[in-house]
Amino acid sequence: MRSWRRNPESGLEAELRANRPEPSRELVDRLEMRVRTHGRDRRAGSFRVAFAGALAAGVLTALASVGGLGYAATGASQAVEKAKRVVHVQTVRTLHKSAAQDQYRKPKAKCRKGTHRVKGVCKRTKKARGVRFRRPPFTG
Amino acid sequence: MFRVDPLANPEPLIKRVYAYVAYRVGDGPDAEDLTSETFERALRYKKSYDSSKGEPIAWLIGIARRCIEGRRPSLEVSAEHLEAAADHGDLEDDAVRRIALSGAVSRLESRDRELISLRYGADLTARQIAELQGAKTNAIEVALHRALGRLRTHLEDDSPPVRKSQARR
After folding, report:
1. By CB atoms within 10 Å of each CB, which of A18, A87, A123, B141 scores lowest?
2. Roughly how many angstroms between the first and final C-alpha of chain B, as a whole number?
3. Which CATH number, 1.20.140, 1.10.357, 1.10.3470, 1.10.8, labels domain B10-168?
């Protein structure tokens, strides 16, 4: 009983270790179960994600091997084209041309005397060289 | 990156955490509740465990300490209750010994009790305790030595009633 008296330091330490309070078996089992199920739940979640990924990869590989991917891509592009046609709104162009519009349109600016219009620009009219004004002949 | 599961082998951890808590607050339902609470928190914050900072037991003891601090006012060990239990003549010698020790530990100062619980309950090394408390290993060793001395004094003070119970047997 008095082992710590015989060898005070080491005896007391041994007593403290030997008489360490112990949990009930029930508590140990309960906590152990809790810890293990918690880990299992988490692992199950990650396994589900991994399984879904592997399945998707498998399906893609199988499709690629039989040209299914190209077929699916063509189908998708065709569907997009069809959808574009359905959704596209056709605009109507209106032409405002009539006889009245020609008649009453804004008049072009007149060129001054001695000029004439060349490609929309008024330019001076050149006199022809060697041409002289002649008086009418005297008749009497 | 590969992560270490701190609760991979829970049974020895449960025993060490319980021993620490029981040395702190007394053996029984309160210690069981606190141990359960510690493991619930550990499961919740398992990702925060960093193996480079210490062993799983040190991490768990840190959680247990916070659990005890959170519930401290209602969890004082009743030394009278332990003495009354020690007076029962029909108790086994081991049980009497355990009760005498628990009674003596419960009469220690809070700091001494904490050190004894960490060293002999949780079975941490002086270095681990130093890391946990942010002190030097040498200072912890000295403090433990003194705490043991005070515990021995308490046990010697307790000896008459224990001897009486032995005499009765």
Report:
1. A87
2. 62
3. 1.20.140
